[in-house]
Amino acid sequence: MKIYNTIFFTDNPDEDTINRLGDLPIKGDDFKISLIDFEASKIQSKNIAINTKGLERAKFAAELIYACHFVTIAEQSMEGDLYGEELIINEIPKVGQRQLYTPSLIIDCYAAGKASFSQNIIYAINKFKLSINTSSCLSVDLDPGEHLDWKSSEDKVRFAYSIILAYSVIEELGLEIRANKENPSKLENGEWNPIIRQNLKERLIEANVPLNETIIWYERGEKQTRKKSPKERELMDYSSGTFTRDKKVDIIEAISQLSYLRSSISAHKFGRKIKELNIYDVKSAQYLAQLLLLYKLELILPPTKHGCP
């Protein structure tokens, strides 16, 4: 076994993080992640080091840590795409080699360790990263005072494929809606088919997702007439009903809405509804995929697991 220094730096986990996620080193599939002093770097924090049998496995672990970073921040990284040996420091940093410090990287290490034992979760994480890199915006841009107006044909294509990837994340986690023509998800009256709904509820429970979990679904800009809106539990307090119409949506209804955006608008030949697809749909889809990934990785614990009522 050999220790490989990475370009990642972070702080020691606090007591609460250790109690929730475990002590160091973090064990992955055929690698361990530890925090060590690294005098060759000008960064004073701890270096994230990978202990494994060879360079290829070290590159795999480093790439997975970096992909998990996209999951925890749900935004594009300022560092851009980095792969393989770009993430490994051999004894001393190369001239011009990037070095990334953020306190949250320790959480990305825990995520990578857990994810490494499941190929489906590895696929899900990388699909999420690709969704973010295909189309995204900064959280500050979601402020109701900001009017994002992206209408070009390329924007619409990017929105569609980001949504397809976000739903594919959910499929990798086994949390998609499993329906067919003989057994549709909705009945003729528009209500849920109880068999399909119950099946999804059981899989959510198995994935550690509380059934009372909700997500904010962003609806902003001009009111849309062609695209279906998700069934809300309630409007957010700040929603004005004009430009801002954000909703609090139950987790099952959010999955249903993402399934609709994927199947009826994004995944096939574009029709008139594509013109109403916007960045707010994309961010809602990505936040849903992020939330389900974090629950699956047990980085968010359901109330019954951390003593809350």
How do the strands and helices of this protein lay out in sequence?
Blueprint: E1 2-10, H1 15-21, E2 26-28, E3 31-36, E4 46-52, H2 55-73, E5 88-89, E6 100-101, H3 105-115, H4 119-134, H5 153-172, H6 194-206, E7 214-217, E8 234-235, E9 247-250, H7 251-266, H8 279-296
Parallel strand pairs: 1-6
Antiparallel strand pairs: 1-4, 1-5, 2-3, 3-4, 7-9, 8-9
Describe the structure.
- The chain folds into two domains: 2-117, no CATH class; 127-305, no CATH class.
- By secondary structure, it is of the alpha+beta class.
- It is globular, with a radius of gyration of 21 Å.
- Mean pLDDT is 89; it is low at 304-309.
- The protein has eight helices and nine strands.
- Strands 1, 2, 3, 4, 5 and 6 form a six-stranded mixed β-sheet that branches. Strands 7-9-8 form a three-stranded antiparallel β-sheet.
